[in-house]
């Protein structure tokens, strides 16, 4: 089994900081950040059959079917940039997805190194999600009150001036996504705990403080 120590899964409720932390780790580890949500939204923007099917489900806060998302991630893991590892954000979200990921990696003679659960209480999740937006050009994440851009209308990271808000970041959908997280995704955690891969951290602190906890677990 090949292991570079860089085959990572971040698990958290929506708005738990997976995307923000993945972007930090991507720079430090030099492996790609694979966000299934981003992949599906991009497919939606391009109007592919997959994207259109996914968009209808995402907007309602529902999961896309396992077979579909497993195929997406299987093809992505075959790409060259994933050879040294990856940071999975938003996958797996169900037990069948977790088992499929193990099989896909096993076929390639690889395995996961760490699964890190980032815990954030529901009230903070809701506060974080209602009001978040991102740079359409580089993906940097912001929030109306918690993390506004330093200069109004200008991305701190790339200077871009196009920002987007997710359609599923509204009160009704967030509550439904949280319920789904607790009923369908958290039951995946014992699967990884049994394999000795799981570490749980408190994700309520500052972004840098949470990143330090992740770095310690990964050993960088
Ligand atoms: P995220 O950006 O991770 O919050 O994902 C946004 C939405 O994409 C989710 O609410 C689901 O509708 C869909 N999605 C992303 N990843 C998965 C997955 N692994 N399984 C099922 N649906 C997913």
Could you describe the 3D structure shown?
This protein has 220 residues and is an alpha/beta fold. The protein is built from nine helices and eight strands. It has helices at residues 18-29, 36-46, 49-60, 66-77, 95-107, 122-129, 171-185, 189-194, 207-218, and strands at residues 7-11, 33-35, 86-89, 114-119, 132-135, 141-143, 163-164, 198-202. The chain has a five-stranded parallel sheet, sandwiched between helices. A three-stranded antiparallel sheet has the order 6-5-7, with no helix packed on it. The protein starts with 6 loop residues before the first strand and ends with a helix. 29% of the residues are buried. The structure holds adenosine monophosphate.
List keywords for this structure.
five-stranded parallel β-sheet, 46% helix, alpha/beta, globular, three-stranded antiparallel β-sheet, binds adenosine monophosphate, 220 residues, 8 strands
State the order of secondary-structure elements, H for helix, E for strand: EHEHHHEHEHEEEHHEH
- The overall pLDDT, averaged over residues, is 95
Low-confidence stretches: none
Q: How many β-strands, per DSSP?
A: 8
Compile the SSE list and pairings.
Layout: E1 7-11, H1 18-29, E2 33-35, H2 36-46, H3 49-60, H4 66-77, E3 86-89, H5 95-107, E4 114-119, H6 122-129, E5 132-135, E6 141-143, E7 163-164, H7 171-185, H8 189-194, E8 198-202, H9 207-218
Parallel strand pairs: 1-3, 1-4, 2-3, 4-8
Antiparallel strand pairs: 5-6, 5-7
Helix pairs in contact: 1-9, 2-3, 4-5
């Amino acid at each position: 089994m090949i292991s570079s120590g860089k085959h990572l899964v971040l698990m958290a409720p929506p708005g738990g900081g997976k995307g923000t932390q993945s972007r930090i780790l991507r720079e430090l580890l030099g492996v790609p950040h694979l966000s299934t949500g981003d992949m599906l939204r991009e497919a939606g923007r391009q109007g592919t059959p997959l994207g259109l099917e996914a968009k209808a489900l995402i907007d309602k806060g529902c999961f896309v079917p396992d077979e579909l998302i497993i195929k997406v991630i299987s093809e992505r893991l075959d790409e060259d940039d994933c050879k040294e590892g990856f940071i999975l954000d938003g996958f797996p979200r169900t037990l069948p997805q977790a088992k499929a990921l193990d099989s896909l990696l096993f076929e390639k003679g690889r395995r996961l190194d760490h699964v890190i659960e980032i815990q954030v209480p529901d009230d903070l999740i809701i506060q974080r999600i209602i009001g978040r937006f991102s740079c359409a050009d580089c993906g940097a994440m912001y929030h109306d009150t918690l993390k506004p851009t330093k200069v109004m209308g200008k991305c701190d990271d790339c200077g871009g001036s196009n920002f987007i808000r997710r359609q599923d970041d509204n009160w009704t959908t967030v509550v439904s996504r949280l319920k789904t997280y607790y009923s369908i995704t958290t039951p995946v955690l014992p699967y990884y705990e049994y394999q000795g891969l799981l570490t749980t951290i408190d994700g309520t602190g500052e972004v840098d403080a949470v990143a330090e906890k992740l770095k310690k677990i990964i050993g960088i």
